[in-house]
TrEMBL record:
Protein name (Swiss-Prot/TrEMBL): Kelch domain-containing protein 2
Biological classification of the source: Eukaryota, Metazoa, Cnidaria, Hydrozoa, Hydroidolina
Pfam families linked: Kelch_KLHDC2_KLHL20_DRC7
Keywords, alphabetical: Kelch repeat, Repeat
Gene expressing this chain: KLHDC2
Organism: Hydra vulgaris
Length: 405
């Protein structure tokens, strides 16, 4: 396992937490979130202007989108199907939780609101839910928000917040499961589940290996949990994985992503003592064991910062995770929240030989420039493009935030 913070070129997005992100065509695409209290002037622009980070040239680009875009939101679910990003739910500063559904076409950068186009009874307004995809379906679980209008007919449970404060009054947690069919006709469905579904919760992490969805932790009432479940995305059968070895502390607002066909990566979160976490854990799905990378910071040569409500996405390099943003102290603190805008990579597999060679050639471009004519046209173009971008932007920025990642 290795870890590094890249030098970044171009403008850099505002610091933020609670955003949504997907990886598409070699780029990290970032939506929404919120930043420091003194950045209120960015307002709606957090979502109207999306940002993309190109991992090949380590450059951020701001894109102005068209169409009916969402407002400023946190805790939304973003799922990529083909070249379309489906953005569901979240918390809007002006109106609270929502159950609106939007779609962003990444080829035209055009938003469409789909809420009224979907047939069937959909989820209630909520944020911080989990989501997976299989074929042309998106599956949503849990979250925090308003009770459904047809609560007595719902499959699953809803618990109201026992000690509500401010906007939490009348809201609570659920363990409802809904499917969004994204075929020729958009349709909401609520399937019957097999097995014991997880307790209601929000701000859990979700990931996927093949047809199995994984869910870890999250908050229910006053407890942040450390239980682990799988969901068969074809039959909707829940299974709790019993762990008899060490395992992570209970947490919410953490991030999870696959790093192989049999391993999951978990980083950071917020624990039951009100602390932002910086630990790294690997779950072996075959042996059903957790392994903490106890010496992660010292072995990386740079201190890993605590991180909560960040995002972690797989890149197109096997075993590589890109982490962006989040908060490095308690997001509930009355002190100033330390939001970040740093990019970091965790690698659990060697880079491909082509990637290592092209990186080396770009570092020594003047030596190998004449020899590039011998390379295939597309590879030669990619090397020339990356070199020009770096040459034209010589003063990159090392964004570390808080003297660490």
């Amino acid at each position: 396992m290795s870890f590094f913070i890249p030098t970044v070129y171009g403008d850099i997005p505002k610091k933020r937490s609670g955003h949504a992100a997907v990886f598409f065509n070699g780029q990290l695409i970032v939506f929404g979130g919120y930043g420091d209290s003194d950045e209120e002037d960015i307002g709606q622009q957090l979502c109207k202007n999306i940002w993309s980070y190109n991992i090949e040239i380590s450059q951020w680009t701001k894109h102005v989108t068209k169409g009916k875009h969402p407002g400023k939101s946190t805790g939304s679910s973003a799922i990529l199907l083909g070249h379309n990003v489906y953005l569901f739910g979240g918390f809007y500063k002006q109106s609270g939780q929502t159950n609106k559904l939007y779609c962003l076409d990444l080829t035209s950068l055009t938003w469409s609101e789909l809420t009224e186009q979907v047939q069937g009874d959909g989820p209630s307004a909520k944020d911080k839910m989990c989501s997976w995809k299989i074929d042309n379906k998106i599956i949503y679980f849990g979250g925090f928000g308003a009770p459904p209008n047809n609560i007595s007919q719902m499959k699953g449970e809803f618990y109201f917040e026992e000690f509500p404060q401010g906007f939490c009054r009348g809201f609570g947690w659920n363990n409802h499961l809904h499917i969004l069919e994204c075929g020729d006709v958009l349709e909401w469905k609520e399937p019957s589940c097999i097995g014991n579904r997880p307790s209601p919760r929000a701000a859990a992490s979700s990931s996927q290996l093949g047809y199995r969805g994984y869910l870890f932790g999250g908050r229910f009432k006053e407890e942040r949990r450390n239980d682990l479940f799988t969901l068969d995305l074809r039959t909707y059968e829940w299974t709790e994985i019993n762990i008899f070895s060490q395992k992570p502390h209970g947490r919410s607002w953490h991030a999870m992503a696959p790093i192989s066909d049999n391993h999951l990566f978990v980083y950071g979160g917020f624990d039951n003592n009100g602390n932002a976490l910086k630990d790294v854990w690997i779950f072996d799905c075959e042996n059903k064991t957790w392994n903490e990378k106890e010496n992660a910071s010292s072995s990386f040569g740079v201190a890993l910062a605590p991180r909560m409500w960040h995002t972690a996405c797989n890149t197109d390099q096997p075993g590589e995770i890109i982490v962006f943003g989040g908060c490095s102290n308690s997001i509930l603190s009355y002190e100033t929240c330390l939001h970040t805008n740093s990019v970091a990579f965790f690698r659990f597999s060697p880079l491909s030989l082509q990637k290592m060679c092209t990186d080396y050639v770009i570092q020594h471009y003047n030596i190998y420039r004449k020899s590039l004519e011998l390379l295939p046209k597309m590879l030669r173009w990619a090397i020339d493009y990356r070199y020009r971008m770096i040459r034209n932007n010589p003063r990159g920025k090392l964004v570390k935030n808080c003297t660490s990642m």
